Each structure stands twice: as structure tokens, then as C-alpha cells.
Amino acid sequence: MIANLVLLALPLVIGYLATTIWHRRFKQYAAFPQLKPSLLWGHMKAIHEFTLRERPKIHFDPIFASMAKELGNPPLMFFDLRPVNYPMVIVNSHQVAEQISRASKQFAWSTPKSPTMDALLRGEDWKQVRKRFNPGFAPQHLMSLLPCILDKTEIFVDHLNRYADSNEEFPLLEFTINLTFDIIGAITMGVDFDAQHSESSEQGEFIQIYDRLIRLYGLGDGQLPWWMYPRREWRKYVLSKQIDQLLESIIQDKHAEHQNQQVQQTGKNKPRDVLSLSLQGNTELSKGLLSDTRDQIKTFLFAGHDTTGILLAWTFYELSRSPHVLKGVRDELDRLLGPDSDPAAVRAKLTGPGADELVNSMVYTTAVIKEVLRVYPPAGTARMARPGTGFNVQTSDGQTFCLDGVIIYNCATIIQRDRTVYGDTADDFVPERWLGDSSGIMSAGAEEDAEKRNAAGRKIPPGAWRAFERGPRNCIGQDLATIEARVIVAVVARRYDFVKVGLGELDLDGKGQPTLNDKGQYRVKSEMYNTTQVTAKPVDAMRMRVRRPTLITRGTNKQNIILSGWPAT
Ligand code: HEM
Ligand SMILES: *[C@@H]1O[C@H](CO)[C@@H](O)[C@H](O)[C@H]1NC(C)=O
Ligand SMILES: *[C@@H]1O[C@H](CO)[C@@H](O)[C@H](O)[C@H]1NC(C)=O
């Protein structure tokens, strides 16, 4: 391995020394805010040093955040990563981030996605393609899929019941991700992934191949360029091909099925999955249509499960340590769905008449989800304008920077904790801050919110919350994700108390009871953090126990509420 490395790297290093350093390294980006670069290693050295100060395996966002702090919170920061990667600019200000994500004179569909994201998000003619798939993600359509989301949630509930009985700890994140995987398979293709089996041999074929593929991405993450690992790259290639073939055969079957049944497919039996909707009106399945469809479906499957699973894991974590938030959610569910929290009763409400009205009325729960996505954003965007484009951004202090040829990363973790926007509570979990946004509380695209003041009397510019990013190429699955999360919370939140184990565990007092800090949250022994594994994942996969609440007291004094469901250990 070492020999390989030296052989491969040597000519490159020499060439790079000769050509790059003296010509470009110090001139082109000299005016950008940045840490002190090293002559040979640019900022690789500084990044390495900052990483060493941190906890093991930590995600890069908090590292960028401490660098921003050291630099006095500039609107953007430059990193010279040559020769292992393109130079990079981290965007810390929402005003600049908006200039990246919106349509501009140069880019009708906003700044192009970075070539580093190629593997997951491809497709040049995406505008046409996205049009074909949009109907499958429209909120009204999604509401017709609530029964399907509830079916999958019942399997999740079975797992929780098992753990409530045994009092064993379990990695919550694995269960939420497998749940959201099941849901995305059903919604995009009408296929049962069987992702929620604990025995992986019983999981669907797609899940098994995907699991093998994704494990390869965890290795040696981003430290060295891909061509340093030929064997790993080859295995990735083989597994990707297998996934392609599997998806193609599903698409072909689906297409054939629709051709045979064209006549009967009206009314209630109409297929509702994204794939079927996108194939409507295409009597012939050309090679091009097949491969376009395959690539899109693949993007939906990849982008649509991890992120939502992470959102759920952090949501249950916050509910476990913020008693007033848990109470707020439970009270809202009682009010909207009635006091019976049995999954069957909730299901009856959410599949009965007015179900979409109910989901839309979950205002507090929605604010909780929005706040989770502010404090724990699972994903971000990386964009890039080709050299010579003349793509400039302005900072609010009137400076102009040309971002041609650099990877641009809108760092949601920094932007969404901006003190000039969120004030002193920028780092705190405060769902109430969103309660004033009566219209489109969740929608990242709702410009009209800009003028609305929230409950705290503070104006939050829409661009300062960008968990799904913004502009024409934002997340297509945002309504699906948030509807999904609301439904799952509606089924689960009143039935179980989650109890963190290990990292982030509650700091109990001498009598075994949790104690509150001045922010109304339980004190914890240590802080949770995330690691990078394609997305930002809680580092311990969110080890938890669950209990059924024992002593349900509602609407009484504060102490009772806090102690409800907390039997002394
Ligand atoms: C909490 C859950 C989710 C979060 C936080 C999230 C976040 C994001 C972000 C930040 C982007 C990048 C947008 C950009 O580059 O400007 C994105 C893109 C995307 N997401 Fe999501 N996402 C979530 C769930 C989903 C789901 C359920 C789907 C299901 C299909 C999905 C499908 C996509 C697709 C297809 C793109 C690429 C859009 C394009 O390139 O045009 N996402 N998402
Ligand atoms: C979830 O799915 C993965 C495969 O994608 C599997 O390895 C894992 O065991 C599953 N976890 C649980 C808790 O079901
Ligand atoms: C990761 O988790 C920590 C919790 O300590 C949070 O503060 C941080 O914003 C998270 N980072 C990302 C990238 O989600």
C-alpha cells in the first residue's frame, strides 16, 4: 500500500510543486479570509491540526465552525486543498449562501452541483427530468400515501415494543434509517425493501447490495484521492452495476405491468408510486428513458433515507432530554388525535377524512422538526462554477469575491447558528422560535415568511434556515421527509420515553432523578456529536433504551410533568 502510494504520488507531487505553487497558490485567493497556509501543504496542515483537537471521528462541520470562530466569523473562508482536492470555499453567511443557491444571470438553475457530488447526484438535463418526477412529491399526492407510511411505522413500533419489554439498549439510528429506507422504497417504486428485518439475510436484495456498497464509502473517507484505493474502487464499481441492473429490472417490470393493465388503472387502484407516475404516457421504454429513470430513482433512494432517519433519531433524542418539548408534542397530539395513543387509533385518525388537515395542524410538532433540522442539519450542498465563469458573490460588508473553480460548501451548521440572526439562543434547542411563522412553517422556499415576525419577535430571514437548501435545485423530497417525520412522531411520541445510553446520557441526581438546567433541559453527562458517513450521523448510532410512560400526568404542576415516565432506577 505504502509503495503504491509513493509510486503513484511521486510524479504528481513533482509536477504540482513545479507548476502550482509559485503561480497560483499565493495570488488568486490571497484576499480571501483564511487560516495561515503552509507553503507546501496549503491548508491541509491547519485542517489536520484542528482535527487533532477534536473528538474522534467527528464530522467536519464543527471543525469548520471552530475555524470560523478563530477567524472572527468571516462570511466565507478559503481552503487550499491542492493537490488532493479542488480549492474550497466554506460559506458561513446566509446572504452569500443565497447567492449560491438562487438562479442567476450566469446560471438559470443556480450554481451547478460540485463534481465531487457526482456519484450521488448526476444528470445534466435534470430540469426536464425533475419535471417528470415532481408530481410524485407534491404534498397533496404525498398525503394519499399516509397508509403506506403507517404500515412501515408499525414494523418500527414492533421493534420498540420488543425493546421496551426487554429494557435492552439498541442503536436507534439503525432502526430509523431502515424504517425510512422501507418508506422510500415503497413510495418511489411501490417495492417492499424488507429493510426492517434484524437478520440482514432476510432483508431485500436491494438493501443487501446497498449495505455492502455504503460500507466501502466509510473507509478512509476523503483523506486521499480515490485512485489511491484501486481495489476498493473496483468493488464499488461492481456493486453500483448490480444496483443499476436491479433497478432496471424493476423499472422494466413496472412498465410492462402498466402496459398490460392500462385500462383498469383508474380511481382507487391507480398506482401511486413515483416511478409509475413518471412512466405515465410513455408507451415505449427507450434505452434513454430507462437509464434516466434509473439514475433518478437511485438518487431518490440514496438521498431519501439516511437524512430522514437522522432527523428522526435527533428528534427522539431532543424529546428525551427536553421535558417541556415532549409535553408540548404530547399535548398537541392529544388535542388533534384524541387521548387514545394506541397505534391503531392514531392510524384510524390519519387514514380517515381530514387526515391531511390533521397533519398540517401539527404546528408545534412541525416546529420541533424544523428546530431539529436547524441544530442538526444532516446534509448540505456543494457547488462549483467552472474556471473563467466570472461568478462573483458580494458579502454584506461590500466585498466581492470571485468563486470560479473552487468547491463551494454552504455550511448549514454554521449558517443556522448565526448569532446575528438567532441571537443568544443560537446554540439552544428552542422550537418555539418558529411558532410565529404561520404560513409554510416548514417550507424552505416560502419567501413570504421573510416579512413575518416569529414568536420571539425576531425576524428570521428565510435563507438563514436551509436544511433542505434553497433555490431551483433544493431538495425534492422535503415535503415527503417532513410529512413522514410528523406521522412517525404522531405514532411514537406518546407511547414511549426514550432514554439515552452512553454518550449524551442524562446526569441523574443522588435519588436517580434527572435535573433541569437553566434552559429547561435535563443535564447530560457528555455531549453527543456526529461523524461523517456520506451524511452527518450521530457518532454512536444513537444508543437508546425505551420505556412505556408509567405515570401520565398532564396539565398539572411542572414537577409532575417532569417526573412522568421516569421511574427511579
Ligand atoms: C430530513 C431529510 C432530508 C434532508 C435534510 C435533505 C437535504 C437535502 C439537501 C441539503 C440537498 C442538497 C440541495 C442542493 O444541493 O442545493 C438535497 C437534495 C436532494 N434531496 Fe434531500 N433531504 C432530505 C430528504 C430527502 C428525501 C426523503 C428525498 C426523496 C426523494 C430527497 C431527495 C433529494 C434529491 C433527489 C436531491 C437532489 C436535488 C437536485 O439535485 O435537483 N431528500 N436534500
Ligand atoms: C438495518 O439495515 C442494515 C442493512 O442496510 C443492516 O445491516 C442492519 O442490521 C439493520 N439494522 C437493524 C437494526 O435492523
Ligand atoms: C452534530 O451534533 C452536534 C451535537 O452535539 C451538533 O451540535 C452539531 O450541529 C451537529 N453537526 C451536524 C453537521 O449536524
From TrEMBL:
Pfam families, A to Z: p450
Organism domain of life: Eukaryota
CDD domains documented for this protein: CYP59-like
Cofactor(s) required, per the database record: heme
Keyword Heme listed: yes
Binding site for heme: 475
Keywords: Heme, Iron, Metal-binding
GO function terms (MF aspect): heme binding; iron ion binding; monooxygenase activity; oxidoreductase activity, acting on paired donors, with incorporation or reduction of molecular oxygen
Name of the protein this chain belongs to: Cytochrome P450
Organism encoding this protein: Dichotomopilus funicola
